[in-house]
Amino acid sequence: MPKIGLRMIKTSIAVFLCFLIYVLRNEQGIVFYSCIAAVLCVQQDSRDTLRVGKNRMEGTIIGGVIGMLTLVFMKYVFVNDNKLFCYLFISLMIIPTIYTTIWLKKPSASYISCVVFLSITVSHGADGNPYMFALMRMLDTFIGILVAYAVNLIHLPSTKESDN
């Protein structure tokens, strides 16, 4: 049986702290995004956590900004009720999303930029205030990254620090 490693414990602590912050914020935002960022960012050491967190935040900002701009364009300029046409437009907007990461020399942020972009445009485009969702999505991700980094700075006792 594999042992429960320090990384598993730190990840669990980071997720709990994200839930705690969510409660302290009177449940503002979506705790899911903080927890996901924490899970993905807790790494073997704080240096790797910082690297992964920076990449995640860069991708979130790029995807969030392009997602918001796409929603503005679709709401005020390109008004079309045809779902298939809207989906075609959103699909085409993946190209500038990826291109922006390449142009900014952040190619490793491409995948998360696309995930955030799609989360905003597809899942929350019809929300009452999708722009606020995009901003909250970025804030929630940032919280998860900070929590992961802070938890990774804590030196918990263990017999061996494994990558589990």
Helix/strand layout:
Layout: H1 6-24, H2 31-41, H3 46-76, H4 83-92, H5 94-103, H6 110-123, H7 130-153
Helix pairs in contact: 1-2, 1-7, 2-7, 3-5, 3-6, 3-7, 5-6
What structural category arises from helix and sheet content?
Answer: mainly alpha
Helix fraction?
Answer: over 70%
Span from first to last CA? 13 Å
- Provide mean pLDDT, rounded: 86
Q: Encode the helix/strand succession as letters.
A: HHHHHHH
Task: Please explain how this structure is put together.
With 164 residues, the chain is mostly helical. It has one domain (6-153). Helix content is 73%, strand content 0%. It has seven helices and no strands. The chain has helices at 6-24, 31-41, 46-76, 83-92, 94-103, 110-123, 130-153. α2 runs parallel beside α7 and α3 (46-76) runs parallel beside α6. The longest helix has 31 residues, at 46-76. The radius of gyration is 18 Å and the shape is elongated.
